[in-house]
From TrEMBL:
Major facilitator superfamily (MFS) profile domain location: 28-447
Membrane-traversing stretches: 24-41, 93-112, 182-202, 251-271, 291-312, 324-342, 348-369, 381-402, 422-443
InterPro entries registered for this protein in UniProt: MFS, MFS_dom, MFS_Na/Anion_cotransporter, MFS_trans_sf
Organism of provenance: Hymenobacter glaciei
First and last residue of the signal peptide: none
Pfam families: MFS_1
Xref: CDD domains: MFS_ExuT_GudP_like
Name of the protein in question: MFS transporter
Amino acid sequence: MTPLATQPPPASPLAAANAVMGRFRWTICALVFFATTINYLDRAVISLLKPYLETEFRWNSDDYANIEIAFKLAYAVGMVGAGRIIDKLGTKLGYALSTALWSLAAMGHALVGSTFGFGIARGFLGITEAGNFPAAIKTTAEWFPQRERALATGIFNSGSNVGAIVAPLTVPLIAETIGWKWAFLITGALGFIWLVLWMVYYETPAKHARLSKAEFDYINADIPVGLPAEGVTEEKPKASWATLLGFKQTWAFVIGKFLTDPVWWFYLFWLPDFLGKQYNLKGTAIALPVAAVYILSSIGSVGGGYLPLGFIKRGMPAFQARKRAMLIIACCVFPIVFAQWLGQLNMWLAVLVIGIAAAAHQAWSANIFTTVSDMFPKRAVGSVTGIGGMAGGLGGIALTALVQKGLFRHYESIGQIQKAYYIMFFICGAAYLLAWVLMFTLVPRMEPIKLDGEE
């Protein structure tokens, strides 16, 4: 027998709970990761099929931009409604409903026979895909303690990059071998496979049969002072949009999303077009550089979650850690303004700089999403995330309508499309620094929100 003096001290209940619950939390994180992967795979398909669809339907730049706007407008409207629905139905049913509907919408593109029809299909896809992030953020808030949420968010948010990586590696190949319609059908069908796994394996902490008191306490161990340890029930009334919009914390999130989400939309919908026009890449040749950008993005997404966690472990309060991390991340985006100049030396230098900027965006997303669960009760997280998502969608529409359509149309007409991309890259580089200044001027320090019925 080991002498008493040399026996290790007993683990604390919270440490023991972490050891037991780790596999539950990270299994749930994996499910949300795969949902986000499928979500982005479905929305990225059209950008890779653009050359095939331009030939078949005789699209011009305006046609594609209008179809893109239809998606973004529907996504923006869907985000605010989806957040309310997720808060009302709960994560299990709400996430399942959203995934089933967007998978049907993705497959429905194969039935379209006109440009107008694609606009309708993209609109339906946009409004249904909007449910992913409110559900994902709410799931993370339910299952992860505050100090782990940025990391969990970074991991599941990296699914957006994996979806964007899988798309160029598979979609052109499917289109060239069995036709573009099958690209929509095959990718859309993946959502139903995920749906089965979600319904079998997911449950909220409030209903989890194996959730002990110690495990529940671990999840809620570092809830900020002033916020209740919710998660057993959600019987309190939902906060109205008017109530939530009365808080400056909501507006800080809205401003951050409005200014930075459009940059990600730009990468997602226009990166293949940029590589095609700048370097004459076509078909499967475009797969490797696009995949490289999103591989870097995946690294940034997870790294963005680790960055504030490192500050927190050194004793910095969670909100201040996120604030510092987001400033560092915003500075990492700025070198994209040199993408055009570097690209004249070598295409891969441009790809590298764009990839670093895309990685920084994903790191930013891992942290900006987490500011919502830092400051708002869990019963309001879906709604606030939806409001911010709507703002991001509207920002994407504004960028497409006011900059991309006018700017790109003008420079393409005079044979100087490179200048249009130079201007766009400058906008991308400045957006995050501006967003950081405005967000943390509005909310310079941690101020938890208390809704009606909370003390």
